[in-house]
Design brief:
By secondary structure, this protein is α/β, with parallel strands linked by helices. The chain folds into two domains: 13-141 and 176-204, Alpha-Beta Complex (Spore Coat Polysaccharide Biosynthesis Protein SpsA, Chain A), CATH 3.90.550; 142-174, no CATH class. The protein has six helices and eight strands; from the N terminus they run βαβαβαβαβαββαβ. It is globular, with a radius of gyration of 17 Å.
Length: 205
């Protein structure tokens, strides 16, 4: 991994990459390792926070192993209830617990377990967008469905292609729950109900 060297003095900010995971044993290791391979923004420490919600597979076991291999860079938050919005609410409480006077959390990046960053400067690009415009509340990623990268021809693949293409053409002003960065102070003001339909697109203007 190529990373910009940081010292204790200039690493006063923590950037959590939050993954809400329910039975994601097939993809969770790849997702975490993909984040850990990213170049690190100057002045930041990066921690992958996996909130395992209601898992009955090997998700937690895999994340625990990654946590042991990467102390201080991976954290498992375990909860018995399932549900993405419940997991997000639990993640917000965890952020409050780990943020302190010496290590502040300004932004959080959310990433679905079955998504991965393309390229090595995604975290740097997110931070640059916020620093270039301090008034920004959130930055959405351009989440390209994997059906554009393979030759699948089934009806589900065609729906994904059509939906993505339509969204690009009409420029819907919303944030996909698959991957986005958000200021922590704004995140804490959003009401995430325990159950929400279409929870992958809940913030819009």
């Amino acid at each position: 991994m190529i990373a910009v060297p940081v010292t204790k003095e200039d690493s006063s900010k923590l950037l959590p990459i939050a993954i809400m995971a329910h039975n994601e044993e097939k993809v969770i290791q790849k997702a975490v390792e993909n984040v850990l391979s990213q170049n690190i923004p100057v002045g930041y420490l990066v921690k992958v926070v996996v909130v395992a919600n209601g898992c009955n597979d090997r998700t937690e076991e895999i994340v625990k192993g990654l946590e042991e291999q990467n102390p201080n860079r991976v954290a498992l938050v375990s909860m018995t209830e399932k549900g993405k919005t419940k997991a997000i609410n639990r993640a917000i409480k965890f952020f409050d617990q780990i943020s302190n006077n010496d290590l502040k959390i300004r932004y959080v990046i959310f990433l679905d377990a079955d998504c991965e960053f393309l390229g090595k400067d995604v975290l740097i690009n997110f931070i640059n967008r916020f620093e270039q415009n301090p008034r920004l509340c959130a930055v959405g990623a351009d989440c390209l469905p994997d059906v554009f990268l393979n030759s699948r021809k089934d009806i589900v693949a065609e729906i994904y292609r059509s939906t993505y293409t339509l969204g690009q053409s009409v420029k819907i002003n919303s944030i996909s729950g698959m991957c986005y960065a958000i200021r922590l102070d704004i995140l804490k003001k959003i009401d995430f109900p325990d159950f929400q339909f279409a929870e992958d697109m809940y913030v819009s203007s």
